[in-house]
TrEMBL record:
Protein's organism: Virgibacillus dokdonensis
Superkingdom of source: Bacteria
Enzyme Commission number(s) from the entry: 1.11.1.6
Protein name: Catalase
Function: Decomposes hydrogen peroxide into water and oxygen; serves to protect cells from the toxic effects of hydrogen peroxide.
Leading EC class: oxidoreductase
Length: 681
């Protein structure tokens, strides 16, 4: 089978389950043609419905049972299909077949998610994002079940239920939804100081991404690569988005949750439908067994990163998401990830968080998907054949033929039989383990603040300000003064300057002593240093009847050429008539969209602007300005920019001031935001 063929195989497999009901006659689930679907069977047209109505009963019973429990965490998610291609053979380090050969392609399915909120919650919550990838390899499914932050809140899985109980809505009120800005979460933080590093990430801009397409992904734990010789190397996995890592601002994120709570899924869906396939490069950090103890942190501690400047990220392949799901329930909802779904050449370590996850993920699918046969659901089926003696259970699809369902046997010549390692049988890495049974934290896991300080030190001024603002918002919502004070005292170990400002904002006492001895910096942690491109960015084009047709049409074309997506926004949807009677179609109106849904604004205006347009457009521009977005103005739009008194600010480009407006404006769009406006504010 060629590699390309392999890439199609998962889709061919899914094709067997895809059904298009369009143009077909309606039947019951038993295949009986239905003659009427408007009226239940009654005793007389005004009489009672009768039990005999099997069609009504079947339809209603199915409906009554349509829901399954949402995921206990990561309930709100969205997914897509794609392909992973290897740039560089990893054979030296791992025998994993899907990483062995340059150019090899493997189909993938990726689900992005928030963590705390329910299935219907807003997508712009301040939260960690899940980034779970299922590789359908020829050796079985490999799941890389990661997050968009490289560390975690806790060091031992036994504390996970406590963490999640603390962050979920408080039990006595059911408030707040999809938010950590409440007493129980911060009480947990203050009393579990291993959370310090992760909380710094969560209070940073990483927690409010601009798009799933613009976030990094991390395997978080340290895993092992194992090669053909049985030699192991410690590995951490990274996904690097080709579009760079970009975020929204908090005021904007909160408004997006109201204006379009589906903002992230819609962004992903539309990018794929438009052929702007999201791409992420896979990187690995490698540490040899000999060097395992050479660092000032324990490499098995999931609250620690391996700074990229110390352990470089080798880029080894690329994932392209190129197909939306056909059915969100069948695919996105029923997909079952598990960090224990591994292939030969990828193995675990003794990270106590990872060890606990190895139990939790199958267990949770049993309740969520209703039994042990979830691997038979089309989205979960491996592309390679699978055989064993497991049988029966709810919803079993496979018809296992034959007499024998046990091992060892003679009746079926002792098959199915385990494969030797040479034949691809999975062999656990033979790590030597010895120790006393003990419930305790390793001494080497006890430094909770050095890397939290490293993260803080590595932020740009504006990123630091955002962290202070986020803490001030979150703690500002906490009712208990004691909890607020404890958190302030705790984070004094990260930065005194930081907590002094937060304490002043929330009205508690700032500690006088404290601070961190760490002065180290890791530039890779700052989003200032990320890739910047205008490609796929949404620009609102504001215009009114009587707009300057030539310049507007040429700007719209020019922006499209740069890979930007212009959307015409006007008082009303439909045709807007230019000064020469030519029209453009407004894709949206001020009623249907808002500036928070766009990356930038181009103000085209009109010579004879209506009062309504003037008022709506100025509000739109001012909000975009406040969120530091690039703003461009054509001839008739310049007066609006001047009225808003922003024409001299950075990132505000007026056509009259520059030679090549489209190029200059596109460069500004690529910058994402002009933060010095916030500093001025
Ligand atoms: Fe999860 N996690 N988790 N988690 N996790 C789940 O499994 C769990 C952790 C992550 O899109 C659940 O199928 C424990 C770290 C993602 O379907 C559950 C611990 C990381 C997803 C579960 C962790 C993750 C989950 C809920 C502490 C990043 C969504 C539904 C030891 C490396 C996958 C489900 C999807 C989902 C347990 C910590 C990532 C209950 C016990 C660390 C991306 O099994």
């Amino acid at each position: 089978m060629s590699d390309h063929k392999q890439g199609q195989t998962k889709q061919e497999q899914l094709d067997a389950y895809r059904v298009d009901d369009k143009g077909k006659k309606m039947t019951t689930n038993q295949g009986l043609n239905v003659s009427e679907d408007e009226f239940s069977l009654k005793a007389g047209v005004r009489g009672p419905t009768i039990m005999e109505d099997f069609h009504f009963r079947e339809k209603m019973t199915h409906f009554d049972h349509e829901r399954i429990p949402e995921r206990v965490v990561h309930a709100r998610g969205y997914a897509a299909h794609g392909v992973f291609e290897v740039y560089k053979s990893m054979e030296q380090y791992t025998k994993a077949d899907f990483l062995k050969e340059k150019g090899k392609q493997t189909p993938v399915f990726v689900r992005f998610s928030t963590v705390a909120g329910s299935k219907g919650s807003g997508e712009l919550a301040r939260d960690v994002r899940g980034f779970a990838t299922k590789f359908y390899t020829e050796e079985g499914n490999y799941d890389l079940v990661g997050n968009n932050m490289p560390v975690f809140f806790i060091q031992d899985a036994i504390k996970f239920p406590d963490l999640i109980h603390a962050v979920k809505p408080e039990p006595h009120t059911g408030i707040p939804q999809a938010a950590s800005a409440h007493d129980t979460f911060w009480d947990f933080v203050a009393n579990n100081q291993e959370t310090a590093h992760m909380v710094m990430w969560q209070m940073s801009d990483r927690a409010i991404p601009r798009s799933f397409r613009m976030m990094e992904g991390f395997g978080v734990h340290t895993f092992r690569f194992v090669n053909e010789m049985g030699e192991a190397t410690f590995v951490k996995f990274h996904w690097k988005p080709k579009l760079g890592v970009h975020s929204t601002v908090w005021d904007e994120a909160q408004k997006i949750n109201g204006k379009n709570p589906d903002f992230h899924r819609q962004d992903l869906y539309e990018a794929i439908e438009n052929g702007a396939y999201p791409e992420f490069e896979l990187g690995v950090q490698l540490i040899s067994e000999e060097d395992a103890n050479a660092f000032d942190y324990d490499i098995l501690d999931p609250t620690k990163i391996w700074p990229e400047e110390e352990v470089p990220v080798k880029i080894i392949g690329k994932m392209t998401l190129n197909r939306n799901v056909d059915n969100v329930f069948a695919e996105t909802e029923q997909v079952a990830f598990h960090p224990g779904h591994v292939v030969p050449g990828i193995d675990f370590t003794n990270d106590p968080l990872l060890q606990g996850r190895l139990f939790s993920y199958t267990d949770t699918q049993l309740i969520r998907l209703g039994g042990p046969n979830f691997h038979e659901l089309p989205i979960n089926r491996p592309v390679c054949p699978f055989h064993n003696n497991q049988r029966d259970g709810y919803g079993r699809h496979t018809i296992n033929v034959g007499q024998v369902s046990y091992h060892k046997n003679a009746l079926a010549e002792n098959t199915p039989e385990p494969a030797s390692p040479e034949e691809g049988g999975y062999e656990h890495y033979q790590e030597k383990v010895e120790g006393r049974k003990i419930r305790a934290r390793s001494e080497s896991f006890k430094d909770h603040f050095s890397q939290a300080a490293l993260f803080w030190n590595s932020m740009s001024e504006i990123e630091k300000q955002h962290i202070i603002d986020a803490f001030s918002f979150e703690l500002g919502k906490v009712e208990s003064k004691e909890v607020q004070q404890q958190v302030i005292n705790m984070f004094a170990h990260v930065s005194l300057e930081m907590v002094q400002e937060i304490a002043a904002n929330i009205g508690v006492t700032a500690p006088k002593g404290g601070g961190s001895p760490v002065s180290k910096v890791s530039p890779a942690l700052s989003q200032e240093n990320t890739t910047k491109t205008a490609v796929t960015r949404n620009v609102a084009v504001l215009l009114d009847n009587g707009f300057h047709t030539d310049s507007v049409i040429s700007v719209i074309h020019g922006l499209k050429k740069q890979g930007i997506r212009p959307f015409v926004v006007a008082n009303k949807r439909g045709a807007i008539v230019g000064e020469d009677s030519n029209t453009v179609e407004a894709n949206a109106s001020f009623l249907t969209v808002d500036s928070v849904l766009f990356d930038a604004v181009y103000v085209a205006g009109s010579k004879q602007m209506s009062d309504r347009f003037y008022q709506q457009a100025t509000h739109f521009i001012q909000e975009a300005f406040h969120h530091c977005k690039p703003i461009g103005a054509g001839s008739d739009g310049v007066s609006l920019i001047e009225d808003c008194r922003i024409h001299q600010a950075k990132g505000v480009i007026t056509a009259s001031d520059v030679d090549n407006f489209v190029d200059t404006f596109s460069d500004a769009v690529a910058q994402h935001r002009f933060w010095d406006r916030e500093v001025q504010v």
